[in-house]
Amino acid sequence: MKKFPADFYFGASTSSHQVEGGCFNDWSEWEKLNAERLASESVKFSNLQSWSRIEFDASDPANYISGVAVDHFNRYTEDLDIAEKIGINSYRFSIEWARIEPARGVWDQDQLNHYSKMIGAMRERNIEPFVTVWHWTLPLWLSEIGGVTHADFPGLFARFAAKLAEEFSGKVKYFITINEPEIYSLNSYLVGVWPPQKKGLISYKRSINSLIKSHILAYDEIKKRIPDSVVGPACNMLNFEPAKGIVNRFLTLFAERYWNRYFLDRIKSKTDYIGVNYYFHNRIHYGFNKNENKLSSDLGWELFPQGIEQVLNNLKDYNLPVYITENGLADERDEHRAWFIEVTLRSIMKSMENGVNVKGYFHWSLIDNFEWDKGFWPRFGLIAVDRKDLTRKIRVVSCGRYREIIEKGI
């Protein structure tokens, strides 16, 4: 049995739009326009083993409207009480930009006060807050002028980050500037399945490069106001595994460079750590995604938790601390989550023994959430939420194992 360091952060993550409810932003408007289409297209999931359980929800347009979500905005104290029972000592959550700056240059102090109260509630429970500045949703005024690819976006983003730093100075130490710039740019500006549904390599490059600049400016603004803050991004990183052959090795190097490292290489002098969101293993055999898929989540994603070890080992040359800012699976019946958490943390321990300075692990997610264009049917939460009355219930098997590892090691 090996124990993690005493100062290791064991946590869970959420994002504002996915759990709070009552959000009014570019996503909430997009949902209304696309719910019928998304429901009609849900038949594409009919090959999933979980289809018989999800078909009713997936084919219902209401599934794709976030609405009250899981009402975390009003029930955060209840959710934090449960988090405390699970044994976590840290919580990653995001600030809803549209609440804070509903019109350009207009700040809503009541909403800022709300998040300050949330942070205070965490402190009362000895839970360290990790604040995500931006997790994909935009105020309508900003999306209407062009969003991420507008020339003013980096400056506006930095101004927003500065406002949060001023408000949370003395309350928050850890900041995550941007969540998964790669995934956002891919889905919103390359393949066009998320708002604003742009398509093409040029729009993708404009988006990712704008987010690089935005992170750098925001980093400086936060550090000016909170010099001892710990600031970095949360990047989506894949475990690329080559089959034998020089072509497969070349494809792996290409994927590592342009997916796992493109953003990091351009901000590495302006980050205090590397945030890793790990979900996907990608076996390369004269092409990508040649996975065996021996075991899959309810979403059909291959479950390959051991792949995180190689992802972490590949980051050693950056010589930076690492936080696993997201890692999880859609598993409504809680059949695989305990095993998944155990194997993941065992693999993290191995990477630490190999010299990687991993400082924390955040499971996605604390509570069942609204999973973007999939809606509510994928269940990622350590805490299950009944969609009818929003009652909470701990997923006993996985939470029990997570708590046991936190207390006793692995």
Architecture overview:
There is one protein chain. By secondary structure, the chain is of the alpha/beta class. Helix content is 43%, strand content 16%. It has an eight-stranded parallel β-barrel, surrounded by six helices. The protein has a two-stranded antiparallel sheet with strand order 9-10. Strand 7 (322-326), helix 14 and strand 8 (358-364) form a beta-alpha-beta unit. The mean pLDDT is 98.
* Proportion of residues in helical segments: 40-55%
Oligomer: single chain
Overall residue-averaged pLDDT value = 98
- Which ranges are low-confidence, i.e. pLDDT below 50, for 5 or more consecutive residues? none
Number of strands: 10
Strand order of the largest sheet: 1-2-3-4-5-6-7-8
Radius of gyration, CA atoms, in whole angstroms: 20 Å
Give the DSSP E fraction (strand runs of 2 or more residues): 15-25%
Our count of helices gives 15
Which outline best applies?
Answer: globular
Q: Secondary-structure element sequence?
A: EHHHHEHHEHHEHHEHHEHEHEEEH
* CA-CA gap between termini: 5 Å
- The structure class reads alpha/beta
The major sheet is characterized as: 8 strands, parallel, barrel
